[in-house]
């Protein structure tokens, strides 16, 4: 299709042709091009997750103690429970979406009127076709599209939470090993044997602690900048959606209120989940210091005391994920984002209401 003015958009047309996204492209390789670029974008995430998964499997192979295996299993159950809860929320959300769109039809069956109740989409979109005539097909397309997007987000998000719980388990095992080392002080063995046993257990705890730090850093090592951008956009988007909720309430617009309320709830949930993940890793890291400090380290042999003091010196510093050099992923960070979003909402409302 050629339009006389289309020559002014040749550069845009060329870029879309390269990506396989030009709407008038009739090439047989259009789908292959689009699939290629999508594969490139996804491959980065997949490779990163594969590396983390391989490390996680490796950690399972080096853990032999029954108590330590029990710790890993406990935190694995936490991650499994979190994944199941997220799937429940996903199913509930899709059920509410379907019922909300089908409600006029259901009411027409239960309590019919002289004419059918109007059917409309809560999600605003321009289809360029008769929405009333093709309502069910459009609804099906909308549900499939949203389900696909949410499944990808949930799949990646829950796996990242599984990595987070695994890092917490590794810090917990490090605390267990250090605490268990101090029980050797009460064992009646020769001084040399006791000294060697305590030092070896402390060294094993330090090794696990180092592996936990490396694993935790890998979770966000290559996505710090994208996460910071997503956080900034999410904060501004939350402020705008809060304004939309207020506007919908003022105008008594139920359709817009339903949509924006879902957006606000989703944004708050993912912001809280991300900051909660950073918080629990920080807390488990701090427990290594607390376990070492609360132990009877002063009764240990001199060589073991030096190792314990080294651990306390190392773990006394806070461990946290910092985005953009200014934002710390934690529950305090979540409260900061929420308060800033509300502040932006207040500013927007004051400007608009003038």
Automatic annotation (TrEMBL):
<keyword id="KW-0812">Transmembrane</keyword>
<dbReference type="GO" id="GO:0005549">
    <property type="term" value="F:odorant binding"/>
</dbReference>
<comment type="similarity">
    <text>Belongs to the insect chemoreceptor superfamily. Heteromeric odorant receptor channel (TC 1.A.69) family.</text>
</comment>
<protein>
    <recommendedName>
        <fullName>Odorant receptor</fullName>
    </recommendedName>
</protein>
<keyword id="KW-1003">Cell membrane</keyword>
<feature type="transmembrane region" description="Helical">
    <location>
        <begin position="84"/>
        <end position="107"/>
    </location>
</feature>
<keyword id="KW-0716">Sensory transduction</keyword>
<keyword id="KW-0675">Receptor</keyword>
<keyword id="KW-1133">Transmembrane helix</keyword>
<dbReference type="InterPro" id="IPR004117">
    <property type="entry name" value="7tm6_olfct_rcpt"/>
</dbReference>
<dbReference type="GO" id="GO:0005886">
    <property type="term" value="C:plasma membrane"/>
</dbReference>
<dbReference type="GO" id="GO:0007165">
    <property type="term" value="P:signal transduction"/>
</dbReference>
<dbReference type="Pfam" id="PF02949">
    <property type="entry name" value="7tm_6"/>
</dbReference>
<feature type="transmembrane region" description="Helical">
    <location>
        <begin position="257"/>
        <end position="277"/>
    </location>
</feature>
<feature type="transmembrane region" description="Helical">
    <location>
        <begin position="227"/>
        <end position="251"/>
    </location>
</feature>
<feature type="transmembrane region" description="Helical">
    <location>
        <begin position="319"/>
        <end position="352"/>
    </location>
</feature>
<feature type="transmembrane region" description="Helical">
    <location>
        <begin position="134"/>
        <end position="163"/>
    </location>
</feature>
<keyword id="KW-0807">Transducer</keyword>
<dbReference type="GO" id="GO:0004984">
    <property type="term" value="F:olfactory receptor activity"/>
</dbReference>
<feature type="transmembrane region" description="Helical">
    <location>
        <begin position="31"/>
        <end position="47"/>
    </location>
</feature>
<keyword id="KW-0472">Membrane</keyword>
<keyword id="KW-0552">Olfaction</keyword>
